[in-house]
Amino acid sequence: MNSKFKTTRILVAAILIFNILMVQSPQASSSVEGVQAFQTGATVQTASPVPSATNKPFNLNANINGSPKTRMGFAWYTNPGASESQLQVLAGVGKDSDDFQGAELLVFSATKKSLTKVNYTSETLKKSFDSFKAIASNLAPNTAYSYRVGNETNGWSDVCTFMTAPADKSAFSFIYVADTQASNTSNFKVTSNTLINAAKRVPNAKFTLITGDLVDNRLGMEWEMEQFLSTMKGVWSKMPLVPILGNHDSNYVDNFSNHFNTAPLPTGMKVAKPGTVYSFEYGDTLFMILNTELATSTAELDRMAAWMAKVANASTKKWKIAAFHRGLYTGSSSYQTDSVSKIIRKKFAPLFDKLKIDLALQGHSHVYEVIGPVKAGKLVSGAVSGVGASKKINANGNGKKGGVFNVKTGTMYFLNNAAGIKFYTPRTKAEMNSAKNVTATGVSNYYSLFTGKLDQPKHQTFTCVNVSSSSLVLNTYLVNSSTGALIGQAPWDTIKIVK
To answer: Can you list the domains of the chain with their CATH numbers?
Structure first.
């Protein structure tokens, strides 16, 4: 590290300590997506400052943990020395603190973990916290709930809301984003604009799924995770978050695991970070969350694959969605020949074929790409229709849009670019199909796999995934990188998956 860069990093760290900024919400969209009529609130709030000298809870978020029909996980922090906290849950929305009393109040105890001298803005500037987790259980399906955490001595969090999943196979929507990956206040403003626009555009979303790299710093700087949760507090306070571990989230201080309360690791897994491999069913869909940071442990990959097979084979749901960070297939100039991705593809692509995975939601590669359906490393013949032509934004884009993709005998691989500031360029057809590339990837005629749009829009993206028993419809929107406003009311690209 040269002295100029080192000085800059120290200056930035000093500024961050005293300058935890709130992010302003962009203009609300006048058009919304969604399947069901439930709304947790009319307004998505901007962030409140993180408490600096109290033991009032902060960094609060809800996570799907087990069956979302009857159960929900919660995680939050306090400054050190807080009394034991609890989770209070009340059926209904529009509640305030005075409503949390009476026989209908559900109270759940929380576990506490003291975190001593964790990295805050650097490995030398450290702070201590108390991490709390609780699970609400025996909830009623398809019911809106309000909740708060804390205690009477130290104070309570703001009142937040969530909704349990229906008991049947009703249609639903969720928000999918990739690589929020911010490291300073201006980055977090961009990322929060993306998520706030998404929550406004899809007010009936049942959860938000992020395919890794929530933050940027691999050294586990707590300030970044703090900002991830506080600048988008208005989103996380309205719906559960489904977090997925990315390479930038994987660090030796485990702050990813400390901040989220997803299901425990599958029995037998020994290397993976807690809460980074899990599954749940929602409506007519099975979701399987994978940890692609295990490429250096063949034994742990084997254990994750065995767990995945067991879960998929036991499910009777129509749709099977796998979500993870490092892409099995990608057109990104940065990662198409990546050795780690090759290890993951070699292990899991045949398993996806065997288990009939319908859709793979990816991250990491920072491009927009619609791939497949793929089976045995090749495009499934006759499975694609209705793909149109569009003006490409990047010179290496393929000028396609839309399409209907039949996954009866193959898997769709999808990445919607990124919700943060980092963008990569797609490779050209010549680069993808070169002998050198075939040797590096083990995939021949790679370019043919991009049956839908391949491009780099140079704007942040989010996708509304509309799920029904007949189809998966993915509507992707652009958020202006400069203004933070939604670009148009119509989706930039729409794909439909059937079988």
So the answer is: 45-163 (2.60.40.380), 172-498 (3.60.21.10)
